[in-house]
Amino acid sequence: MNAGRRNLPQLLGEARRWFEEALLAALAATGARPVSPAQAQLFAVLGEEGATVAELARRMGVTRQTAHQAVHGLVDAGLLERVPDPASARQRLIRRTPEGERVHGQAQRVLGELEDRLAERIGPARVAALREALEAPWGPPPSPQVRVPLV
Q1: What pLDDT does 1 receive?
Q2: Which residue range(s) make up the domain with 54?
Q3: Rounded to two decimals, what is the model's pTM?
Q4: Looking at the chain, which runs of residues are DSSP E strands?
Q5: Between the CA of residue 131 and those of 6, 45, 51, 137, 147, what are the distances in Å?
Q6: Crossing angle, helix 8-29 and helix 37-45, to 10 degrees?
Q7: What CA–CA distance (Å, rounded) separates 145 from 130?
Q8: pLDDT digits (tens, 9 = 90+) for 86-123
Q9: CATH number at residue 55
Q10: What domain count does the chain have?
């Protein structure tokens, strides 16, 4: 890898922030209550069936405390609710409220528009290739035995 070249995780992070900043700005322009990037990420990984805070933390790659804080803010905003987990009397599932479903649908539409704008800027073939590469199965992360040349 070239010394001055940004690594792939940096580039992926910048791309994610591009979408995130544009999404949050578009939602704010519609009068939606502002959410933090962590709250937006939580909203994105929450499926229709709901999930526990521990599962959301795992999907987000953050601590339970961070996920809990994001959940708390979104519950206070009326976008999420806590309901009993039918699989465990001790657990609570986090699910979208009807207002949360409305905002989620709005966010999905905005993201589609942003993808279209990106295609206008860098070309539809590049966006399609990017999507194809990201959707391809990567397999589990490499084991610690990956050899890194010593300099």
Answers
A1: 53
A2: 10-130
A3: 0.80
A4: 80-85, 88-96
A5: 20, 18, 26, 12, 29
A6: 100
A7: 29
A8: 888 889 999 999 999 999 999 999 999 999 999 999 99
A9: 1.10.10.10
A10: 1
